[in-house]
Write a structure and sequence with these properties.
Elements lengths: L9 E9 L4 H16 L5 E9 L8 E7 L8 H8 L3 H6 L3 E15 L6 E7 L2 H11 L5 E7 L21 E7 L1 H6 L7 E6 L9
Antiparallel strand pairs: 1-3, 1-4, 2-3, 2-8, 4-6, 5-7, 5-8, 6-7
Amino acid sequence: MNDDLAGTSAVLALWNDVTPEVEAEYNAWHANEHVPERLTVPGMLWGRRYRRLGDGATPRYLTIYGMRDAQVLESEAYRVLLSRPTPMSARMRPHLCNVSRWVCELREALGSFASSHLAAWTFDAEDAARLRAAECASRATDLLLAQRSMAAAPLPWLTDGQAHAIEGTWLLAIGMAGEALAASEAARGAMLYGALPVRPALHRP
């Protein structure tokens, strides 16, 4: 594993949409409060935000967190954030829709996930995921291959009407420069995203 992702053995991937009337508020909250707040949890190592490029059937936003291990999501520090949302978090929760949450074990990683663009796929079979990873490896500046845990607990506040099933058990995410992504035949069939800003982690207590 590349040193930039050293210590990361699990990832949390979250896809979502948001109702249009609060989209500007959502992006300010998500970049400046929500993701930095999550990064105060011990063992939550990094977070990246993305927005889908163009039209598509998949949710518009994707957030990926790197974790020391999946048990971080069972920690008291993380549970407190779920059970005691900030006023803005409480306001935003009902506006989130098409939410899909994957808790994954990291199998391969390269880079620091600082690329401007991301191609992401989900697969049912490990062989298919590894084949596509091999096809993309020479063009990628970042690569993440992770296996989903089907036993992971859902978000406690999420209603059935807010959920959206993204199928599969393997996640492959490839970071590239924008020009490389647009020109790459290897990106066929991918969900394509552009990186969004995120404020550094808030002060850890």
